[in-house]
Amino acid sequence: MTNLLIIKQCPTPMALLDKDLHLIGASDAWYKFTKAPMENAPKIPFTDILPKGTRSLVNAVRESKEKSRVIEGEDYNYQPEGKIQWIYYKIQPSDNEFIIYLNDITSEKENLKTKIFLEETSKVAQIGNWFYDVKNDLLEWTVVTKKICDVSQDYVPTLEKFLQFFKEGKHVEQALKNINSAINKGNDFDLELQILTAKGEEKWVRFRGHVEKAKDKAVKIYGTLQNIDPQKTTELQLALQEKQIKSSKRALAENKQAFKSIFNSTFQFTGFLNIKGRLVDINEPALNFGGIETEDVINKYFWDTYWWQGSIKEQKKLKKNFKKAIRGEFVRYEAKILDKNNNKVYVDFSLKPVLDHKKRVSFLIAEGRVIQEMVEARKKLKESEKLHRTLLELSPTGLALNDAMSGEFLDMNNSFKQSTGYSSNELLKMTHLDVIPKTDKNKELRVLKEVLNQGKYGPYEGHYLNKNKQLVPTLITRVLITNSTGRKLIWSVIQDITHIKEKEEELLEVINVASEQNNRLLNFAHIVSHNLRSHASNFSMLIELLGVEEDVFKKVEIIDMLNSASGNMLETISNLNEIIAINTNLNIKTETVNLKAEIDEAFTNISELIKNSFAEVENNVPEDIDIKVVKAYLESILLNIFTNAIKYKAPNRYPVIKINAEQIKGFTVLSVEDNGRGIDLEKHGHKLFGMYKTFHGNSDARGIGLFITKNQIDAMKGKIEAESEIDKGTKFKIYFNENY
Questions:
Q1: How far apart (Å, rounded) are the C-alpha atoms in residues 176 and 139?
Q2: Which residues form the Histidine kinase domain (predicted)?
Q3: Cβ atoms of 546 and 565 closer than 8 Å
Q4: pLDDT, mean of each 10-residue run, the chain (740 residues)
Q5: Residues 632 and 575 sit within 8 Å (Cβ to Cβ)
Q6: Which of 9, 41, 549, 712 shows the greatest Cβ crowding within 10 Å of its Cβ?
Q7: Three-state DSSP string of 11-68
Q8: Architecture of the CATH domain 266-376
Q9: How far apart are CA 124 and CA 227, in angstroms?
Q10: Domain residue ranges in the chain
Q11: 3-state DSSP call for residue 130?
């Protein structure tokens, strides 16, 4: 029998039960702990003296009796004030008796829970703790601290190693300064610094330290290391965005001013119309052209303004075309408007619709370019063509025009019809070989081959079959021409051997002059548009860059580039003026230039385009190669080829341009190779150099560059070839005639 007196005096909660689980005795500490009544009545059930609500303890007592073994465990109950009380219990059977031990472990549970909460909070907030014992030079890190620094959990830190994690420069300097201040002066610190983790990753951290002092000396430092990289990155990005917004606003104001300056300094007639047709803005050149003020035309219907008062017909045409434009159609035509002297002047006029984000027309851009000289030149050309037609019809020499490939008759004069005996309708249904005797057909096929290769063949003796199948002896000259659509045609001059020798040369000259003059006028118009656009684009990019650049030295550099671009543009304009003289006099002025130097100058003109596209250029052209060319043509050719190499770059790689040159068989051959998108030559090769032919769907593609380039090369008696593969790039070979 257990000594009841010992149990009663036990300082811990203890109770003794008999084999039927009735209370035999308990310590005073038991009654105080359980708040059970201290009754002396025998046979009190054990459930009455246990802490209320401890179901696990009740079940454990019963299980101990049934299985006669020691049982330990934990249980809890609610105190009157609502707090949870945690209880450790141990039930020990002995000689048909049971001893129950109890212990209050609430504080231990709370401490454990607090520790777990702190650990989980640290993990979620990525806050690691560190502790430094100053006296013993001992540094300890928690799990989260090691995780932030990307080290293993068995890593042993030291203060020296800790400081090495901070990024070089101001970050490690501030960390070292504040650690020393904490140790020597007892100062706490709270810093935001960058560290470089063991894996080489840069992170922003909040580095805090609190000093525990004894006799004004630092004894221990308790600190935290919090990963604030996402927040800091966001903060820096927001600051950068705010700076960019301010810069953008400033640039917008500057661009607006620049736009206004350009808008008012252009040689074009430019204005903006609302969807009702009222003029909302107009540039100064247009006002000066009409000798009027802004208030005379703003907010008026465009067709009611001064410029259109010279002709009711022109007003009606404008209204009709305005309706087309307001439906989204680009309209361009030749119009006659009044200048300040009340003279009617021809302009190349256009209405361009501008769409909003819903693809609806929001306003129209009206543009006009004075083309009076071009119209007069065209009239002269028409007069020349009329003269040519008159000569064609009145000439005693037979003339016939055939398609170079099919041989079909397209035109002929009376002399040819009279010599063959066929009417126009009959000949237009026939081909060239239909009026050639069988004995001459092989010869004619050889002649055709020579004409296609050389552009001209003859004079040579030949025969035609007239309608009566009679042979007509002739002296024939055949000339290859290309019309504005690129179609190859053959003019045939069928001369009387004895009487028309002189007339042959005269008419050939007329034909060549008319064709050459027509082609040169067309080519010149496109050269002006294309070349000046390249310079304008370079100006625009440099001005935009000047607007957003804050560095004074870089601004000076950009201004130098603008001066250089301005000089280049003036030179281009000068060259184009020479081309006007060329087209007027039909005597092309050539000069000898250094090929490598011209290529370098072309790249200087598009330097910003190269820089913005990260293009790589390899100019392997020897420095000693000189060529004889029309310089304006060469400049246009180089700009077209180089800008195309960048414009049609592959989307998944930076553009690379390789340039080489060699001299073969009377030609200097310049090859320009890029790694861009490439062209399907099998599909598009036949129209690669055609006018307005585009192949990649670029919104800024005009399809005129390669057409101009080929015409310029042809004019200098050269040729151009292309090699290309889809997604591998394109290589152009330009043959400059050394005998030109």
A1: 15
A2: 527-740
A3: no
A4: 73 86 85 75 74 83 86 83 82 85 82 60 69 87 89 90 91 92 91 91 90 85 87 75 70 55 64 92 88 91 93 93 94 92 91 91 90 82 77 80 92 87 91 90 90 90 87 88 89 71 55 58 60 71 79 80 76 56 56 92 89 91 92 89 88 92 91 90 72 53 69 85 89 89
A5: yes
A6: 712
A7: CCCEEEECCCCEEEEECHHHHHHHCCCCCCCCCCEHHHHCCCCCHHHHHHHHHHHHHC
A8: 2-Layer Sandwich (3.30)
A9: 10
A10: 2-106, 126-229, 266-376, 395-496, 503-580, 587-737
A11: strand
- Spatial neighbors of 344 by CB under 8 A, at least 6 apart, are 310, 311, 336, 337, 338
Identify the residue whose tokens are 């840069």: 202
Topology of 2-106 in CATH?
Beta-Lactamase (3.30.450)
Beta strand 616-619 with 656-664 is: parallel
Q: What is the bridge-based pairing of β-strands 97-104 and 361-370?
A: unpaired
CATH superfamily of 126-229: PAS domain (3.30.450.20)
Contacts of 218 (CB under 8 A, 6+ apart): 134, 182, 183, 184, 186, 211, 212
Q: Strand order of the sheet with strand 656-664? A: 616-619, 656-664, 667-674, 729-737, 719-725
Give the whole-angstrom CA distance, residue 354 versus residue 363: 6
Q: Show the tokens assigned to 252.
A: 């917008």
